[in-house]
Amino acid sequence: MASSTSADCGPDPPCIAREHGDTMTLQEAFAAWGMSECLDYTLPSAWRFEVVASAKDEAEMLEQLSIGKPFFAPKEYASDVHAKCDDALTYITRKRWNKFPRPRIAFKGGWGRPGGLLADHTQLKLCESFADVLAEDDVLNLQLFHRQGPDEPKIPALPLKLRWPIPQVFGGQSTRVLAPRDTSAQEEDQALEGGQQSHDVGAGVVVDNATRVSKKGAVTWWHLDDGGEFVYQVSLPLKRKAHLIGPNGLPVTKLFLFFPLDAYELVQQDDLTNDQYTVAGLDIFKAQGHQLPFVAQTASQSGAGKPSLPKVWIAPLEAGGQPLMSTPNVPHLVITVQDCVMIEQRRIGKLFLDEIVYFRERARRWAEPPILYNYITTTLHDTGYLSSELLPWLQHLAAGKAEDTTTTKDVHSSVGAESEAEAVESELSPELISFMQRRALASLGSMIECPKHFGLERSQTQELRRSLGAMCAALEGGGAASYSNVDGCAATIFNTINAMRHMSPGVSRVMDGAYAARVYVDKMMWFGPLRETQQQATIDLAFLKEQVLAGTVVDLLKSLHSGDQNAAAQFESLHMAAAAAGAADDDEDDLFD
């Protein structure tokens, strides 16, 4: 086994270590890992990163879920998957299922890159088989969703073999492939749902299973997974020469780059995408340091501006290794390091209804509607289902009564388990009881925050509003002032939803409590200095727009970033003038008090 403690494991291949984020910038790490073999990049030194946690047990997984961070689950949860395959590329091209009954669409590696068209047929390619994906000169990425029906490839649905951890949080094992798309329905809502059924497995709802075949160099650009879902994925074993070794000594097949949920507007600029119908976002591999948000020095200070950016969360997915849990609504991109096969299952979490609300509020601002599963658009609007099943279950947990039961099925009547054997009795840990209680409170709170996304009657919403305050205050280990801050995940979600409702075009909420104006020049995003309020960033925006028209905005931001005192003075004078105008308005108002 290759060493996992040093980036220099000899000329072939390099290795990723978990502690690299403590000692390297992302620029240094990419150079050490040989990423230039996979893609062209000119990363600035401003980006810091950390390797996501490898959770050893339930408590560590709950810790990551509480703050909305992706993590690796223990390898044994994927053992049934790995047992079915010795070499992923040999397996996927077996004669029994290699050829497709009908051609399938694969995406070319650059689809969705900032600056490209939002809908571009030239970035798509029809493939007749799995072997075609790997043999084409184009760098391709094909995602095959498993369905029932004669037109579907006969490849086994390995995602059904992937075991999810903590069934009280995610639900039990799913044992069936979803029904095929319903092409008879013509309603717009049905089209947005994808026309597919879901599978209720208790605390979770399975909404899709997929096998993905990718060539080296394929990049899946910034996106959110649909509907506020969890995506649980693992890379199949390989018997090929490794290009990069992961922390566990196995070949790295894909490198996931995640940002925190509240950094969405740093990487995606939806207002510009809607206006121009091109992908407006952060090209992290091309953007230079002086294009990124930074803390500018004042005219009386010396020195260059200081970058202030969120850390990138790196997840190296290893062939035959640990499954990766992608948490909902964290913007991410994925780089394929070598030809590989990845399988995935997608689930909606009933304890994470706030994630669904966030996704729907975010997607309302998109020109192109996303896929919304029928559980979201139909089931959550079914008053009978909410009143008889989901609401009582959440209220039971929110009251801290999870310990009253030893099985998921006892708590929630719609567990959907295929057999009683799946509902194995187990004593719930105090950490799990507390987690479920807090998540139930956040989910109930989301029904109050955005009632339009749920089918509760007005009287039910009002009663829920009255009862939630007392439930939050009664939390064991210290009460919460509101459902919106029962854990770190809820606090980020509800703060971001509230901020979204008041955002102006041309200004990004880069991180919690930090705003920056932005302008689009030559298909690249340029950010102004970070400000404490949206109003301050809006003042910058008006000035930057003037500079765009004059053709001087790039030079101005470069100068400001480098610490030029004249550039800093220009910005300071704008804010001083705005403050003076505001004070004058206040004095005028006083005359009429």
What does this structure look like?
It contains 20 helices and 20 strands. It has helices spanning 20-23, 26-32, 58-66, 79-82, 88-92, 130-135, 167-170, 188-193, 264-267, 270-276, 353-363, 374-377, 383-398, 408-411, 430-449, 458-473, 488-500, 534-550, 553-562, 565-590, and strands spanning 49-51, 53-54, 71-72, 99-108, 124-129, 140-145, 199-200, 204-214, 219-223, 230-235, 252-258, 294-295, 306-307, 312-318, 324-326, 332-336, 340-349, 507-511, 514-521, 524-527. The chain is globular. Mean pLDDT is 87; it is low at 1-10, 183-195, 406-411 and 413-425. A hairpin with a 2-residue loop joins strand 19 (514-521) and strand 20 (524-527). Strands 2, 3, 4, 5, 6, 7, 8, 10, 15 and 17 form a 10-stranded mixed sheet that branches. A 5-stranded mixed sheet has the order 1-14-11-16-9. The protein is α+β, with helices and mostly antiparallel strands and 593 residues long. Helix content is 33%, strand content 18%.
